[in-house]
Write a structure and sequence with these properties.
Radius of gyration: 23 Å
Number of helices: 15
CATH superfamily of the largest domain: Aldehyde Dehydrogenase, Chain A, domain 1
CATH topology of the largest domain: Aldehyde Dehydrogenase, Chain A, domain 1
Structural class: alpha/beta
CATH class of the largest domain: Alpha Beta
Distance between the termini: 66 Å
Number of domains: 2
Number of strands: 22
Bound molecules: NADP nicotinamide-adenine-dinucleotide phosphate
Length: 484
């Protein structure tokens, strides 16, 4: 399909109570191509009344969806999985157009996103309770798991489909209804997903999608509405803190997938070729715009120089371009704000004495491109080490001892992901245990896996998505005491 056919095929309205409808104000929101800065299309720009209508629809659908046979809930998810498989190329192009990532990466995200629908189609029929005899023998204890109720799911722009299915999959499997609010930069993938789930047989009102240019004002009234029972948020720690506080006003169930500042540790006993290959992925996947992106590279002093030189050589081979161009390895950053922030961090590091081995600046011309960059001799207090970069910049710092590497890795308010490269099993386990993170990649640059629990500690949030744990976020345990 051509770009314009793919764009024409996507619904551009709000999805509420099973119908596509314009914002009640008639307002439109422009979606831009980050590779050119040019508009792609417009979608509905919801206001407060639309968000409340979406919550009303979710509330009205909750009782029936919660009582829907788990097998049928699973089969709807499975049908959506099959439909997405058939439409992978088209969805990848759509995602690439609105977000900028290369087609190869976009296809990878479609597959990853879709796997959550398959995984949770299987989990829908494995929601268990328990039955036991009370310790004094005089009662029986029954527990059951029930859907939490209508959810508000807020997703970021960096993985427009996967951050949605990682929430929508388990919520649907558990029997919850929902209002989904995608990021304003990338609403199209979510709208396409809504269309597919509807084609797969999802009843009206179970999933509602609200696209808007003013997220705060539109979602805030939902927090005062007793029909809302849960918030699941993926995004920055700053916004997450604000929303967690707001959710506590009504003691909502909350899951938070927030920012990261992952350290990647390369020990002198590591397989250097493997470490470089995997670092390329840990750093450059999604142009570095991933919460799990390797933000700080700590490399053992004896191999630090060679590692930096070889990593820079690999980065120099990458071709920058529009994601939808089949020759592109690295796409643009999402917008001018993000590109300028990345450059600010690089400039700060250079001002403090860092050496630029490759890259070091944005590309001239339209679009928000930043050249893949390797920095060495980076001073400890440089912002590039303390803040989430969200760009293709690899700051390298050398270390002398294992204890020093662990201390440096843990010296951050974040705790999402850590990477360890070593061929010493004892060291691998010691370091994996010592890292203060929710996840660790051991000799692996992209450990994310549908069947594993994804999530952080410290300021990276709480709750887990995927794995056997993912569905628990959408279930409440009820205990029934039975006298005998
Ligand atoms: P963001 O600015 O926090 O936005 C995330 C979502 O929240 C967007 O849909 C945004 O809407 C919405 N939002 C912003 N302010 C809001 C408010 N006051 N009330 C309600 N919703 C609000 O984050 P981002 O820049 O899109 O995404 C990047 C961040 O996400 C990074 O920090 C990254 O680490 C994190 N992330 C974490 C994970 C994880 O699993 N831990 C995964 C991916 C990304 P608008 O876009 O329409 O403003």
């Amino acid at each position: 399909m051509t770009e314009s056919e793919v764009l024409n095929d996507v619904p551009k309205e709000l999805f509420i109570a099973g119908a596509w409808r314009p914002a009640s104000s008639g307002a439109r929101l422009e979606v831009e191509d980050p590779a050119t800065g040019q508009p792609l299309c417009e979608v509905a720009d919801a206001g407060e009344a639309d968000a409340l209508a979406a919550l009303a629809a979710a509330h009205d659908a909750q009782a029936a969806w919660g009582a829907h046979p788990p097998r049928e809930r699973g089969e709807i998810l499975r049908r959506a999985f099959e439909l997405i498989n058939e439409r992978t190329d088209e969805l990848a192009m759509l995602m690439s157009l609105e977000m900028g990532k290369s087609l190869v990466e976009a296809r990878g995200e479609v597959a990853y996103a879709n796997d959550f629908l398959r995984w949770f189609s299987e989990e829908a029929v494995r929601i268990r309770g328990s039955y036991s005899v009370s310790p004094n023998g005089k009662a029986r204890l029954l527990t059951m798991r029930q859907p939490v109720g209508p959810c508000l799911l807020i997703t970021p722009w960096n993985f427009p489909l996967a951050m949605g299915t990682r929430k929508i999959g388990p919520a649907l499997a558990a029997g919850c209804t929902m209002v989904v609010k995608p990021a304003k930069q990338t609403p199209l993938s979510m709208l396409a997903l809504g269309q597919i789930l509807s084609q797969a047989g999802l009843p009206a009102g179970v999933l509602n999608i609200v696209t808007t240019s003013h997220a705060g004002a539109v979602t805030d009234p939902l927090f005062d509405d007793p029909r809302l029972r849960k918030l699941s948020f993926t995004g920055s720690t700053e916004v997450g803190r604000l929303l967690a506080r707001r959710a506590m006003d009504r003691v909502l169930r909350v899951s938070m997938e927030l920012g990261g500042n992952a350290a990647l540790l390369v020990f002198e006993d590591a397989d250097l070729e493997l470490a470089i290959d995997q670092t390329m992925m840990a750093k450059l996947r999604n142009m570095g715009e991933a919460c799990t992106s390797a933000n700080r590279l700590y490399v053992a002093a004896p191999v630090a120089e060679e590692f930096a030189r070889r990593l820079a050589a690999r980065m120099e081979q990458l071709r920058l371009g529009r994601g939808v161009d089949p020759d592109t390895d690295v796409g643009p950053l999402i917008d001018a704000i993000q590109r300028d922030k990345v450059h600010e961090l690089v400039t700060d590091a250079v001002d403090r004495g860092a050496t630029v081995l490759t890259g070091g600046g944005p590309l001239e011309g339209p679009g928000y491109f930043y050249r893949p960059t390797v920095l060495t001799h980076v001073a400890d207090q440089s912002r590039v080490l303390t803040e989430e970069i969200f760009g293709p910049v690899a700051p390298i710092v050398s270390f002398d001892t294992e204890a020093e590497a662990i201390a440096k890795a843990n010296d951050t308010e974040y705790g999402l992901m850590g990477y360890v490269f070593t061929s010493d099993l004892g060291r691998a386990l010691r370091v994996a245990e010592a890292l203060d993170t929710g996840m660790v990649g051991l000799n692996q640059g992209v450990p994310s896996n549908t069947a594993a629990p994804f999530g952080g500690v410290k300021q990276s949030g709480f709750g887990r998505e995927g794995g056997a744990e993912g569905i628990e976020e959408y279930l409440s345990v009820k205990y029934v005491g039975i006298g005998v």
